[in-house]
Description:
Family: Belongs to the Orn/Lys/Arg decarboxylase class-II family. LysA subfamily.
Catalytic activity: meso-2,6-diaminopimelate + H(+) = L-lysine + CO2
InterPro entries: Ala_racemase/Decarboxylase_C, DAP_deCOOHase_LysA, De-COase2_CS, De-COase2_N, De-COase2_pyr-phos_BS, DHFR-like_dom_sf, DHFR_CS, DHFR_dom
Structural class: alpha/beta
Helix content: 10-25%
Number of domains: 4
Pathway: Amino-acid biosynthesis; L-lysine biosynthesis via DAP pathway; L-lysine from DL-2,6-diaminopimelate: step 1/1
Number of helices: 26
GO molecular function: diaminopimelate decarboxylase activity; dihydrofolate reductase activity; thymidylate synthase activity
Largest sheet: 9 strands, mixed
Radius of gyration: 34 Å
Amino acid sequence: MAAAYLLSHSSILPKTLNLTPNPKSPLLSKPFVNLYKPLTPKRLTLKAVVSQNNSTSKTATLEPETNNFKHCFSKKEDGYLYCEGVKVQDIMESVEKRPFYLYSKPQITRNVEAYKDALQGLRSIIGYAIKANNNLKILEHLRKLGCGAVLVSGNELRLALAAGFDPSKCIFNGNGKLLEDLVLAAESGVFVNIDSEFDLENIVSAARLAEKRVNVLLRINPDVDPQVHPYVATGNKNSKFGIRNEKLQWFLDAVKAHPNELKLVGAHCHLGSTITKVDIFRDAAVLMVNYIDQIREQGFEISYLNIGGGLGIDYYHTGAVLPTPRDLIDTVRELVLSRDLNLIIEPGRSLIANTCCLVNRVTGVKTNGTKNFIVIDGSMAELIRPSLYDAYQHIELVAPTPSEAEVSTFDVVGPVCESADFLGKERKLPTPERGAGLVVHDAGAYCMSMASTYNLKMRPPEYWVEEDGSVAKIRHGETFEDHLRTRHSNHSFLLAAVSMAGEIRNVLDSPAADAKPNLQRTYQVVVAATKEMGIGKDGKLPWKLPSDLTFFKDITLKTSNPEKKNAVVMGRKTWESIPIKNRPLPGRINVILTRSRDFDVGTIDNVLTCGSMDSALQLLAMPPYNLSIERVFVIGGGEILRWEVLIFAARSEYVLSHRDTLNAPACDAIHNTEIETNIECDTFIPPVDTSLFHTWYSSLPMVENNIRYSFVTYVRVRRTASDTHGQNNDTKSNNGKFEVQDFSFLPQIIFERHEEYMYLRLVQEILSSGNLKADRTGTGTLSKFGCQVHIGLSDREEGDLGPIYGFQWRHFGASYTDMHADYTGKGFDQLADVIHKIKNNPDDRRIILSAWNPSDLTLMALPPCHMFAQRSADMGLGVPFNIASYALLTCMIAHVCAFSFPVDLLPGDFIHDLGDAHVYCNHIEPLREQLLKSPKPFPFLKINPQKKDINSFEAADFELIGYDPHPRIQMKMAV
């Protein structure tokens, strides 16, 4: 049984136990008593003590008198308010000074575990009501805990899918579901509740459009009084929700008439919210199973009973006895089991409300007539429940007040220009000082999800306390720039229109334009194309490559600055080719290019429309987009990548560039999934102009669904279009020179895939956190033990340390005299043996090459530092040489062995296991200098194709193409 303390008391307590507070109890002086010893976290941003409420702990039995009401927010003896052991005052001082929501992640876990414990023995779905709180991080956490989702709009469905919820555990409710949202629901495979005649008609239409059969439930209005506020009552006969029982037969006949579109799998009712009497659930369940019996008699296979409606919580913080999840489930358990049903419940408030508070700062205290007011920076805009429902939510100060502070009765109000702007009335509180922290408790449900921008108060940020006591931001607060951005759609249409009419200069020079836009906003192209630059067939992608979709998402979605987003620019046909459930592409600004004046996407968030590429670039170069967008990606389709682009030339003139979008001067980089397999296409784009772009990164070829492809990133070189006029495609003439030396403008996943960063990051770790050790040379080292670097074999140099490695590879066991002796035919030739086995028995598990020969260690000037596992790694001089030499050796082996295979034998990955990775103290400054330099693109290694014997290679058989190193950094060898 989980020690959940979900609502007011633990679900393990006997139902007959009287939990009325004893006025003589000494515990009343400590409002929330901690039952367990606090744990000290290992490392926290804020000084904190982790809460005793460990979400994984289980309590078998507790004496009733020790089971006192407690809360994830509690005041301790020092008078400060804590959240899971973290002082709220410390959090306030560490975040931006504005109202914010603060959650306890462990409390969310405990609440879910209480429901899961109560549901043991039943087939069930905990359908979290997203309307209660739609924070994506919270949704992801609930999904990981095993919850499903209850949805009431298309956007909530999109959000649930983005959070990773299993569609088979999602239920789409609502009395006015839109057709386009129902199409998405049908495509996704979620349950849909039928609420009315027109709702059924729309579901049938959606099923036909999606070409899917929809699993539906009938939402029956049971006419049960939940005895709650009328605004949150949904199950009485005059409610707008559900169908009355007298109409049930009509709906059953209608479902029978559409067997290809509808499959009736269950019955649903919803009672309301803040319910405090579980007998109401029992009454509703009795009615519902009777309806299910009647429906089954007509041949329907009903397997789900969905009872919606939420338990109340103790908003007054009195420790009142309220129903627990077990109380709720036990009232319907036998009914559910007797009909062999799956039970779906729809908690929202009871999962999330008591996990959160709204943290505010006191602006001042005033008195008018007989009323005392505490004015805070929070308001009805952030938390409207008290104003809307006349709801009570507990309020208290974050920190102790001076002893002389007078306790008075206050109305707690906000700065919004409404008399209804209050968070609490007639609250007895010590008179706070200006700037003091004040919290409104139990604000996790129907607070942030109902927040508004009334009076242009921007929606607040959200944070939570993790299990280890650390604090993380889980939603950024809205800004005024965000508000401006959502008001710019008309401006984008204006730019599009004048662009098409050739009147850009008139608009930009008009009084309405405060400043000329920076028309130099650059972009990067993301595309997948064949060798002939084919990108599509019959309006669709002619290949299915899941890894490519992941690559696309990683490139276009991730930003280095969490406050910003990327923009993706696409044509109308590309937009329409995206499945409805996936558009707009989440987490990005979607810019749709279209010349059609009739095309309208409505008011979808994060979607803009423009008439051309140049108008889109102008728009994105102006506020607020130039401040809120990190990178711009053009993602297709064919017509867009062939468009001519207006560019800003000298003397503020506009000239028409004859460069296509792909190779235009504004294009910084091209990320191409190069399809090597021959595939028929009917849509093509121009080739990458190699006089303008040079390869910066290339993955190893891979095969997926019988299609061979690789990821290649091209970056613009120094030569411009005016230099070459597109005539020169000789990559050698560019000498590997790029427009810039800093490549951080590339997507992080590409920027960091440069294999040298793996080496440099390890160097940085050693310099920052390595342990100082003595060594055999007396130089001293900074050391870090147990490291691994995974490097693709595109680093290629040759090098040889003499007889140490080569001798053991070719003459293992031979008696060594000196480096000039002839060892031909002596010892065991490991390298020849490895090559023979690869050619003749590639599955042999004894293909091993070792340089470690204990019998020769005393004869070696320096024992081998590396095999495939390197015992001693000198990060300054040794490791770069080790990587290069083994990479070269592997490429040589692949080259000579390839003649025995029908296809090219390509080198794979070099996985470098490092034991003692260290930096010599006299290498620290040179390595710091190296860390300041950006790695350059690797050269290409060309091996003489005529050489087929490992013994026949000479230095002239290897050519490095495009080798452009940084100036030498000198390091002394420690001996």
